[in-house]
Amino acid sequence: MNPAENSSTAANGASARGAKDHIVIFDTTLRDGEQCPGASMTFEEKLQVATLLDDMGVDVIEAGFPIASDGDFESVREIAKTVKRSVICGLARANPGDIDRAGEAIKPAARGRIHTFIGTSPLHRQFQLQLDQEQVYERVISSVTRARNYTDDVEWSPMDATRTEHDFLCRVIEAAIKAGATTINVPDTVGYATPEEYFELIRMLIERVPNSDKAIFSTHCHDDLGLAVANSLAGVRAGARQIECTINGLGERAGNAALEEVVMAIRTRGDIMPFETGIDSTHLMRASKLISTVTSFPVQYNKAIIGRNAFAHESGIHQDGVLKNAETYEIMTPESVGVTKNALVMGKHSGRHAFREKLKDLGFSLGENALEEVFKRFKDLADRKKDVYDEDIEALVGDEILTAHDRVKLVSLSIVAGTRGPQRATIRLDIDGTERMEEAEGNGPVDAVFNVIKKLVPHEATLELYQVHAVTGGTDAQAEVSIRLKADNGEVTGRGADPDTLVASARAYLSALNRLRARVARTHAHAATP
Ligand code: KIV
Ligand code: ZN
């Protein structure tokens, strides 16, 4: 059978537009991405991400794993209520409890999907599930059948498919489609496959599974060998018509295929990949920045498509070429992925109206309170810094998004530092509406700052990562500090920006601590729920 026929015949909500070569973009930033240590997002942040994904044209948003926690359930449900265009998907293992919870969570969605999975490889069957082939086979049928009671859009995944025996894989896929699965996802769960192997696997499945034309085949590739995007594209060339991916490639271990990379590869190399996605690529940079902000995971400078250097030309020969004709060294335009020029912003005399317009240009829409906060900080910054760039404003907005619901806030900080230690910090914090002040010494000013904060907000978490980078060039640049804290109940990250590195450090530390406190409060609330 011609694999391309596969996409047009599936009775699947996401493929309803019927375009033969449309590639369904299934974003799992809020599920597989959020699953990675330290990347957890708050309820509000998840909603913001989902809204942006919907705006940019993502076909399916995997909004979470509803059985995992009440918080996950609530956020999937709220996203299902709010998002109007994308299909909203909830993940479920192959058991009735998971499927019922996912079914409940997606109920308010205009179009909802349940994605259910079970490990099929010998390793998963034997060590994780302790089930034999027949038992797994039965669970596939019962789980897909149960999911179909909630929605006719059911996706099924054989976890660790790339290490599963081919005969068994064909058998379970056939059974899943017969039971009503409309999308068959083929996960390279451990990022083990190479593009040639993955191509052959998808082709073999489409050819051998007798009812393969009744479902869309999907790629789900992890990046352990740096091959996730290459494997996903190989899968599409072999006949898959859905790609599962995440913004910035966020995900378990080395992450998933990066959405921005698959989208731009398909768009830029239309000559050899005659497919299209519904993604408005001018949103890519904004999406990347939002994810980086809410997870506090920095984006590597040379990251394809959305890295800070992705469109920077340093060598004289390259600069000369680009000035004469950008195509000499650019295969895509910066504008096509939403990169704005390093534009100078108005400065200290600019008013609220101009500032609001600037935020709009940068793709942010803030509520009145948040706008007022960011505007105040912008004025402050413009007083202290000669030139205020787009990146500076983005850092301030990022701070506001992260800290809007914080209950512990920095009021003031002063430091005694220099060659003659010990260094000493004095800090005033607003803790749940009450101001308190303390001071402490440390082995260097950053250590002193963190010691005072620990006195004011006692905790047992350990500092796993402390990272500083300059938001722009120049000695008056804002410092952006990223922090990761490890506690008994998991890892949290925080980020803060300020022209003073120590203030940025205090902000970052407090943003991580606020997340930790919120997590503890949530756990207590759940424990108290009968
Ligand atoms: O990597 C994986 O196998 C998964 C499944 C849940 C699809 O994330
Ligand atoms: Zn995965």
Task: Write up what this structure looks like.
The protein is α/β, with parallel strands linked by helices and 530 residues long. It has helices at 5-9, 29-33, 43-56, 70-82, 96-106, 122-129, 133-148, 166-179, 195-208, 228-237, 259-268, 284-295, 316-324, 352-361, 368-384, 390-403, 445-456, 501-528; strands spanning 24-27, 60-64, 87-93, 112-119, 154-159, 183-188, 216-221, 242-245, 408-416, 423-431, 434-442, 462-470, 479-487, 490-498. The protein folds into four domains: 3-295, Aldolase class I (TIM Barrel, Alpha-Beta Barrel); 311-339, no CATH class; 340-404; 405-528, Double Stranded RNA Binding Domain. It is 42% helix and 19% strand. Bound molecules: 3-methyl-2-oxobutanoic acid (KIV) and zinc ion.
Question: What number of domains?
Answer: 4
Which structural category fits the helices and strands?
alpha/beta
Percentage beta strand: 15-25%
**What's the main sheet like?**
8 strands, parallel, barrel
Mean pLDDT: 89
- DSSP summary, beta strand count: 14
**What Rg do the Cα atoms give?**
25 Å
Distance between the termini: 54 Å
Topology of helices and strands:
Layout lengths: L4 H5 L14 E4 L1 H5 L9 H14 L3 E5 L5 H13 L4 E7 L2 H11 L5 E8 L2 H8 L3 H16 L5 E6 L6 H14 L3 E6 L6 H14 L7 E6 L6 H10 L4 E4 L13 H10 L15 H12 L20 H9 L27 H10 L6 H17 L5 H14 L4 E9 L6 E9 L2 E9 L2 H12 L5 E9 L8 E9 L2 E9 L2 H28 L2
Parallel strand pairs: 1-2, 1-8, 2-3, 3-4, 4-5, 5-6, 6-7, 7-8
Antiparallel strand pairs: 9-10, 10-11, 12-13, 13-14
This protein binds 3-methyl-2-oxobutanoic acid and zinc ion.
